[in-house]
Amino acid sequence: MTQMPDDPVDYIAVTRDTYTSLGYAEYRWADNSNEPVPFAEPTKPLAESKVVLLASGGVYALGDVGFAHKDDLTFREVPMSTPTNQLRVTHFAYDETSARSDINAVFPIEALRSLEQEGVVGSVASVGLTFMGGIYSQRRLGETLIPALVERVKELEADIALLVPV
Amino acid sequence: MTTSVTSAWSITESVRPPRAVFTDFPLGNTAGPPHRSDVQLDIARQALSLIATDSEPGTILPLSHEWGEPWKEEARELVDHRTERFETPQYQEVKDREAAIARHGEQVATGEASSRWGQSPWD
Q1: Are B45 and A111 within 8 A, CB to CB?
Q2: CA pair distance A129, A147, nearest whole angstrom
Q3: Fewer Cβ atoms within 10 Å of its own Cβ: the N or the C terminal residue of chain B?
Q4: ipTM of the complex
Q5: Rounded CA gap, A1 and B23, in Å?
Q6: pLDDT computed for residue B113 by the predictor
């Protein structure tokens, strides 16, 4: 099933070469290629499952605190009932033009609402969990942000996490 | 269980999430092009369908949607597009900052995030 498409942009190579050309230290990617994939089998049908959306594009709702662009290990809870014209993005490392024109480009809130109405999924968690990627320390992520997100996903009693990086 | 959408093939191969669909779009459009609710819905549907199918651990499924305009040459340029990494909360619009101050207070809405690195950003 995993067959590489034609000619994808190799962002590892592009980022490594860009950093090197600028004289920066080499970018350190997460490399789990020798680790087993953390895989769980479904325990119930999709149509009975609750889905929670997690997105790293720096999404926040109007009235909430934005993200610091350096070392921000916090996350926001975005009510999935929020009108899309009250959703915002802030991020230092990707072109936000699409997201600011239509938040669904990085936070598919309306698609999930539709799939819930169709009955494809049982329900959608009341909030989506958002943070701002581009955090360099895998150790800090593993010790701080990720455990906090996992705890919240469990509290929400979600069966499925849909991850949307940028 | 986890499923995901990605537009960065090599990074996803390195990270190895449990399941992913691949959208060959410029970064910033992972979940679909803006104002294309039909494409966005199909991408979310296929990402969730990976849960129901008997996918192998680490599956990355390329989807057939195309961006429609040339974009890869620019994406491969060795250019640092990052903006300054400010240490205080940043907002899309000035009024967002004012709304956050009204709800959370000035210190929280404009102060430094509580977590900080040591000497090395990689630490």
Answers
A1: yes
A2: 13
A3: C
A4: 0.96
A5: 15
A6: 55
Pairing of strands A59-61, A87-89: antiparallel
Domain residue ranges of chain B, discontinuous segments joined by +: 4-69, 82-113
Contact check, Cβ <8 Å, B35/A12: no
Q: Give the whole-angstrom CA distance, residue B9 versus residue B115.
A: 30
Q: Which residues of A touch B70 (CB under 8 A)?
A: none
Highest-pLDDT range among A23-27, A34-38, A49-53, B118-122: A49-53
pLDDT at site A69: 86
Number of residues that this document lists for chain B: 123
Residue found by looking up tokens 């953390």 in the block: A38
Between CA B56 and CA B54 the distance in angstroms is: 7
Residues with Cβ within 8 Å of residue A89, at least 6 apart in sequence: A57, A58, A59, A60, A96, A99, A100, A103, A106, B92
In angstroms, the separation between the Cα of residue B110 and the nearest Cα of chain A is 8
A85 contacts chain B (CB < 8 A) = no
Verify whether the Cβ–Cβ distance B37 to A100 is below 8 Å: no
A106 within 8 A of A59, measured Cβ to Cβ: yes
> With 0-12 CB in 10 A as exposed, 13-18 as middle and 19+ as buried, what is B53?
middle
Cα four-point dihedral sign A143, A149, A150, A155? positive
